[in-house]
């Protein structure tokens, strides 16, 4: 079977006509068979979320205005993107088709499925317009509709075996092609409806595709030169990390490093496909290589995840009682709510969740087990690295740096790659800055 590489370009990387031009150069830089995964143009998915919200709350006038504004953006985008008469007419027809669809939706009664259809327009538009651009520049390629192969089951989990079979079949049908373009983020769900892999999901699409076709590499092209040692949106001085293991990268992604979708590492890890994080705006920068090798020992990076809720269950009955934790976990399992952190004492257990959809019901079901306290507006700060438990000084440096921060929970030892702290969100900026200095000597 032909070996492909996967190249995924995020919103900023396709957000301007000149960036699409740059992308076309990057994807044709060598002759390796390539599958290109594109996000929506930057800002589009946010606008589509707003449009969906306006429609669902009955603000049709507002939705109309948002749709018109977005359409105007695409009209000027294509004027700059394609110059030929025929290709411009094609691009115009694509924009018209998708905005007509949004206009029709305005008249239909709102549903969850409809909101997913709205969200899918961004990736459909970006890939189709990019395809027209490639056509204008006589770059031979084929547009692969993600909705024909990317799917999730009734638990929202990707169906990797089905993705594998369908994708192999589609590629087989176009054996003469070496360059394929497809949509990130969008998929079909168990009911066959249009759905998506959650915000930032194009990274996940890329990794799933790379796993499904056993790609030589999964390149994630974005607007920064790789995974940095700390959140560059919060801390001024951060540096790119050259090498990470899959485990380290997965922990960072899960615990808030926005550069990667939280679930995007496992498919590549499971199928042993190396992942590279690269900068579209600075293609010669080294970026970050993610493989089974960590490269070095010790702390590599810090990430933070907001919107965390702590639940404390205090019960004297817990004393020496086996089966107590099982009963508690069953409640979370019932509501399909993942637990991020957990600490126990003789008479109490504290755990954290991110998904608040069923918080009330969870608390109600926990009440028979003891006194329940819920604390909101918390942040998990994760310190990630290789063999942390065997690296001297990690904990002493960590706590020395954070003497003034009210730490609510600590999780250490569950994984060799992670120490996690739970803090009030109001202290996040300060914590990340203090750790930058204390652990990396960067100010
Ligand atoms: P894309 O649209 O290409 O998917 P994202 O905005 O999703 O890009 O991800 C890239 C952004 O992630 C960066 O611009 C940066 O602000 C943010 N980010 C957060 N944490 C990190 C980190 N540790 N290293 C690099 N980037 C990070
Ligand atoms: N366009 C989607 C989003 O903005 C998916 C992605 O960009 O990864 O969330
Ligand atoms: Mg992203």
CATH architecture of the largest domain: 3-Layer(aba) Sandwich
Helix content: 40-55%
CATH class placement of the largest domain: Alpha Beta
| CATH topology assignment of the largest domain | Carbamate kinase
Q: From the helix content, strand content and strand pairing, which structural class follows?
A: alpha/beta
- Which overall shape is indicated by the principal axes computed on the Cα atoms? globular
The number of E-state strands comes to 16
Write down the Rg. Answer: 23 Å
Order of helices and strands: EHHEHHHHEHEEEHEEHHEEEHEEHEHEEH
Annotation field: number of helices: 14
Bound molecules: adenosine-5'-diphosphate, aspartic acid, magnesium ion
Largest sheet: 8 strands, mixed
User: What percentage of amino acids are in beta strands?
Assistant: 15-25%
- Uncertain runs are none
> What name goes with the CATH superfamily of the largest domain?
Acetylglutamate kinase-like
**Mean pLDDT over all positions:** 96
Distance between the termini: 50 Å
Number of domains: 2
Strand order of the largest sheet: 3-4-2-1-7-9-10-8
List the helices and strands and how they pair.
Elements lengths: L4 E5 L1 H4 L2 H11 L6 E5 L5 H13 L3 H22 L3 H23 L4 H25 L5 E3 L15 H14 L5 E5 L2 E3 L5 E3 L5 H11 L5 E5 L20 E3 H9 L10 H6 L4 E5 L8 E4 L6 E17 L9 H11 L4 E6 L3 E6 L5 H8 L4 E16 L7 H8 L7 E4 L5 E7 L3 H13 L3
Helix pairs in contact: 2-4, 3-4, 3-6, 4-5, 5-6, 7-8, 13-14
The structure holds adenosine-5'-diphosphate (ADP), aspartic acid and magnesium ion.
């Amino acid at each position: 079977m032909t070996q492909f590489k996967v190249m995924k370009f995020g919103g900023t990387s396709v957000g301007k006509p000149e960036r699409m031009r740059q992308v076309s150069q990057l994807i044709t830089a060598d002759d390796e068979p390539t599958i290109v995964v594109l996000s929506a143009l930057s800002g589009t998915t946010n606008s589509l979320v707003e449009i969906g919200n306006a429609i669902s709350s009955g603000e049709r006038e507002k939705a109309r205005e948002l749709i018109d504004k977005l359409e105007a953006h695409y009209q000027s985008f294509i004027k700059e993107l394609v110059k030929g008469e025929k290709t411009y007419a094609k691009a115009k027809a694509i924009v018209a088709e998708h905005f007509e669809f949004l206009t029709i939706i305005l008249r239909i009664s709102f549903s969850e499925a409809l909101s997913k259809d709205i969200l899918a327009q961004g990736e459909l538009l970006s890939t189709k317009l990019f395809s027209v651009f490639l056509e204008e520049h006589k770059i031979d390629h084929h547009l692969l509709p993600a909705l024909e192969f990317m799917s999730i089951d009734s638990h929202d989990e990707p169906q990797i075996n089905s993705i594998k079979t369908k994708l192999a079949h589609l590629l087989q049908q176009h054996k003469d092609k070496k360059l394929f373009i497809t949509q990130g983020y969008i998929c079909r769900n168990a009911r066959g409806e249009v759905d998506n892999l959650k915000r930032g999901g194009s990274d996940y699409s890329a990794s799933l595709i790379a796993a499904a076709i056993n790609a030589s590499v999964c390149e994630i092209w974005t607007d920064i030169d790789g995974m940095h040692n700390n959140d560059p949106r919060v801390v001024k001085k951060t540096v790119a990390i050259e090498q990470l293991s899959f485990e380290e990268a997965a922990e960072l992604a899960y615990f808030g490093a926005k550069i990667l979708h939280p679930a995007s590492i496992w498919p590549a890890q499971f199928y042993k496909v190396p992942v590279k994080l690269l900068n579209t705006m600075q293609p010669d920068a080294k970026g970050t290589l993610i493989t089974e090798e960590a490269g070095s020992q010790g702390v590599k990076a810090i990430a933070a995840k907001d919107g965390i809720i702590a639940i404390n269950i205090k019960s004297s009955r817990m004393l020496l009682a086996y089966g107590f934790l099982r009963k508690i976990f069953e409640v979370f399992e019932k509501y399909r709510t993942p637990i991020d952190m957990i600490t126990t004492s003789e008479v109490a257990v504290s755990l954290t969740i991110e998904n608040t959809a069923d918080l009330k019901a969870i608390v109600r079901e926990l009440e028979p087990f003891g006194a329940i306290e819920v604390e909101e507006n918390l942040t998990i700060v994760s310190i990630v690295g290789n063999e942390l438990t065997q690296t001297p000084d990690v904990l002493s440096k960590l706590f020395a740096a954070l003497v003034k921060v009210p730490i609510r929970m600590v999780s250490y030892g569950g994984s060799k790659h992670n120490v996690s702290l739970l803090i009030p969100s109001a202290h996040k900026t300060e914590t990340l800055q203090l750790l930058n200095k204390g652990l990396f000597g960067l100010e």
